[in-house]
Amino acid sequence: MVGCNLLLGNEEGMLIDGTGGAPAMGGWTAAGGISASGAPAADAGDDSSGEGGTPSGPSATGGEPEPLPEAGSTGMEPTGGSSNPEPPPTGGTGGVGEGSGGTIGSAGEAGAGSGGCISNECTPMTVEMVEVSCGPCGKGHQFAPRACRSDCTWSEPAAPVGTCDTTGLCDPAAAAEMRTTPCPNGGWKNQKRACTSECTLGAWTDTEACQQGPNGCSGCACVSYCDHPERHVTSCLWIACSKAEAQAECEEDIEAASCTRRPPVELIDWRPM
Known about the structure:
Blueprint: E1 8-9, E2 15-16, H1 92-113, E3 127-134, E4 140-147, E5 161-165, E6 177-182, E7 188-193, E8 205-206, E9 221-225, E10 235-238, H2 243-256, E11 266-269
Parallel strand pairs: 10-11
Antiparallel strand pairs: 1-2, 3-4, 4-5, 6-7, 7-8, 9-10
């Protein structure tokens, strides 16, 4: 290197110039050695004066010269940093990346479980009850089960369970309903109502004019049957007044008609509509 002469020992213990020239004159040797002039060498600690200057080569403690330092072990390190390259990354960051990939994979598996879904209507394997139409004109209702398929859509309802609720509905093909209604003074008349094409019941209509029995009924009540042919009780028609007044008059009429009283006495509400 510039400004530094490397000194090597020869076979005779004499120093030679590192450049291969003649023996150095008055130079420095190891302690106990012989200089080129034959004079005893100076102590290792002595300072050389004159042209020689302070030695800068091997150690002055004597013995063989120290081996040359290996590259990268001296203080004069390469400017690029340590001669021993740092070990490659341990893969910690890469491991994190793989872990993240695992999370994505998990999401993929979750997606695979529902990969067949084409909607979000329901959860596969669930069952629910739904209302379905039934009865006349499809206006009645009852309940039927349906299941969620693997594509997350509802199946068609299965067979309905229970009975069809047809409250307020009728069958247009059914016969008309009939009833007997009161007329004034204990009379009566027959009425009917039919089912419309909308499967709803129509209004009551008279089928005849009011009829009167052989014995007219007036006041608040009158005897209808001394012995009813079906129920075998005495019955009276309540045609007006309050219920208490009608019951009192009914008892009076039973005695007047010489009826055999058959309890319990029925008081039929026969007030005109």
